[in-house]
Write a structure and sequence with these properties.
This protein is an alpha+beta fold. The chain is built from eight helices and seven strands; from the N terminus they run H-E-E-E-E-H-H-E-E-H-E-H-H-H-H. It has a five-stranded mixed sheet with strand order 1-7-2-3-6, sandwiched between helices.
């Protein structure tokens, strides 16, 4: 079995036993506490007196979705020539200022442990504990031991897919899902203003603000304000 077939098989056998009782937030960070359960790979190789389950616990941090355009995506770093050509194709097809949402995530693994009991029994115990705590941002995932990260990624992908409609609706309701006369999304313009405010208070590295302005190709428009940040520090 090649890698592609193994990935497909792992995704096929991934099951979200308990989905989080919330979608990805439109206007803030989302913190998902995950319990990823798998049957240990060695269970297939040796006879066990009692069933065991592998528990991988951690958090997925989803940043506030950013409203972007093909122009912005075209300037992101770390993409090869094929990806750049794809962005150019999107710009020709939909226009350089067609709005879309960009989601970013960070996985923070916590603990890995071996628990006594079958996977369904362990899942029930964890589910009862979550209910007792009233933790809305918790999820239980059944995955494949040797490719557990594929199972986690599939969960993230599906949660994003389910959240997009609500995120777009809320942005439209606030008048933010659109672009101004210069082709810059209204939400991005507001985000830049917030970055200037945070940088002026010393809460944001000005270099991150400079990078954002460069990605939008509007540094010249904000150059004087950006330089003022350094004059105030003297």
């Amino acid at each position: 079995m090649n890698d592609q077939e193994r990935i497909k098989l792992a995704a096929l056998h991934t099951q979200v036993i308990r989905p989080p009782q919330q979608l990805l937030a439109t206007f803030g960070q989302t913190n998902i506490h995950y319990y990823l359960l798998t049957e240990p790979i060695y269970a297939e190789l040796e006879q066990q007196a009692r069933p065991e389950t592998v528990l991988r616990e951690g958090r997925v941090i989803a940043e506030r979705p950013k409203l972007v355009t093909p122009v912005y995506m075209h300037k992101l770093e770390g993409f090869g020539d094929d990806a750049q050509r794809y962005f150019e194709m999107i710009m020709r097809r939909h226009g350089p200022h067609a709005p879309g949402l960009l989601y970013t995530y960070k996985n923070e693994p916590k603990d890995t442990s071996i628990l006594t009991g079958s996977l369904p029994a362990v899942a029930n115990r964890i589910n009862d504990d979550i209910n007792e705590r009233g933790e809305k941002g918790a999820t239980i995932i059944r995955g494949v031991d040797e490719m557990w990260d594929v199972s986690l990624f599939k969960f993230i992908y599906e949660l994003t897919e389910h959240s997009i409609s609500q995120n777009v609706t809320e942005l439209k309701a606030h008048g933010l899902f659109g672009v101004d006369n210069s082709g810059l999304p209204i939400e991005a313009r507001m985000r830049i203003e917030q970055m200037f405010w945070d940088a002026s208070r010393g809460e944001l590295d000005p270099g991150l603000l400079k990078t954002e302005l460069d990605r939008w190709g509007i540094f010249d428009e904000y150059q004087d304000r950006f330089l003022d940040l350094f004059r105030r520090r003297r």
